[in-house]
UniProtKB/TrEMBL annotation:
GO terms for biological process: glycine biosynthetic process; L-threonine catabolic process. This is Putative lyase. It holds the Pfam family Beta_elim_lyase. It comes from Actinoplanes missouriensis (strain ATCC 14538 / DSM 43046 / CBS 188.64 / JCM 3121 / NBRC 102363 / NCIMB 12654 / NRRL B-3342 / UNCC 431). The keyword Lyase applies.
Amino acid sequence: MPENTLRRRQAAMRACDRILSGARPVTMRERLDELSAVADLDDLPDYYGDGPVTTLEQRVANLLGTEAAVWFPTGTMAQQVALRYGAQETGAVALHPLSHQLVHERDAYATLSGLRAVTPTTAYRNPVAAEIAALEERVGTVVFELPMRDAGFVLPTWDELTEACEEAVNIGARVHFDGARIWESAPYLGRSLAEIAEQADSTYVSFYKTLGGLSGAALAGTADLARYARAWRHRHGGNLFQQWPAVMSAVAGLDRELPRVPDYVRHARRVAAALAELPGARVFPEPPHTHQFRLFLPHPAGVLNAAVLTLAEQRKVWFAGGWRDTEVPGVAMAELTIAAAALEWTAADVADAGERLLELCR
């Protein structure tokens, strides 16, 4: 997105009285004010991973029911370490073509660690047990993305996930969960975070996705994995001198946002149902599996993005941005995130905003 377009979009969102998808952008000073309100800034900062970092790691391990958890500055780094840990013998990992590792990490798994990807399925979902059993070569790790973002934020059922994880163990592989959005996966799966993480040998979580942290991630699993992860975090350049602002924002997210996630997921289903009634609209998945889902409308992306900005600037209502053209001519798609700002929206509010947006597209 061009710099001037991004700044205009941010300014429009900040000025809106109501936001359906996403959160109002905040300034750096506002973020610092938030931190001072939730953290004891008179405590000493961390030094190369102690203090508040250690406290956060233990909290994550407790949440996920694992022996340990290790803080990472980025999820990409955390996942490289997780895949390397299970690939010493085979050098191969089972990855979906739409996985974060293949789509968004510039092939770091192969370039940095020399790993080879084996594809269990091309379907727009995580692999199922039969597909894992049918793999034609040995893999060290089978990766499940919960939810699979680039397939439309889709999740397996609990039985499908359990059976697939059991089959991964049967073929002698580790199970790794790309759980960047695991926080909002629990309601659909119908299990606690600890029960979900129990199915895997390692689980990565993000603190800025869903929880609203500044940045950062954690890799959770056994004590042996944690020792390995700390060594490789250092080798990857991830043992930063101080990281307390990101750590404190992660703690704030666990305190403030995590308890509200089930409300976001429930409300996303109401919002999606209202949006599906708009002329020519399609929601996927229907109903949403998490608090994020895709909306398709019968207009080009450029027209929709312009209409969203106009609606925001004229009526102080933010609908949803980031529209992209699809393979179907004249149809565009946006990813919606239903969070705190959207909880006050009724189905009638959603329908009214959608109708006004479509009028601007004519």
